[in-house]
Amino acid sequence: MAAAESSFDIVSRVDMMELKNAVSQAEKELSNRYDLKSTKAEIQFEKDELTLVADDDFVMDQLESIIFSKLLKRGIDARQISWTKREPAAGITIKQKLELKVGIPQDKAKALTKQIRDAIKVNAQIQGDEVRVSSKSRDDLQKAITFVKGLELDYPVDFVNYR
What we know:
By secondary structure, the chain is of the alpha+beta class. It has 2 domains: 65 residues, Alpha-Beta Plaits; 85 residues, Alpha-Beta Plaits (2-Layer Sandwich), CATH 3.30.70. Strands 2, 3, 4, 5 and 6 form a 5-stranded antiparallel beta sheet that branches. It has a 4-stranded antiparallel beta sheet with strand order 7-8-1-9, covered by helices on one side. The longest helix is centred in the N-terminal third of the chain and has 17 residues. The radius of gyration is 20 Å and the shape is elongated. The N and C termini lie close together (12 Å).
């Protein structure tokens, strides 16, 4: 990178603190819900994956609704949430995983860099699951941010490391 070049990174990530807050709020609501008191409903949280366990489909629907609303309230974008198929679990319970999509997939990053380079004279390259945009002109970088914000992407983006 030349001495006079400025850059920023385009990322797609989940704020883990907000995720933990959402899960604890959902667990609190779960423990206070009268209609779910005598069920085996629970939320298991490990790393970047949530597992919901319930007695049946009705309870699972309730659990899904609780966790989904808490995630949205804490600012986690619905496009980052992916539900797996429900499957039988221990005893007579069912489980379902909620996976969080983190990072920009390679094929989508390629398309994004091409769109940015076609619209504005900046350098855009893929770095892992992020996209770095650099230019000598800070005005061009601002235009690139505005351009990306205006795109209809199927994943949320954030702009970090502006320097």
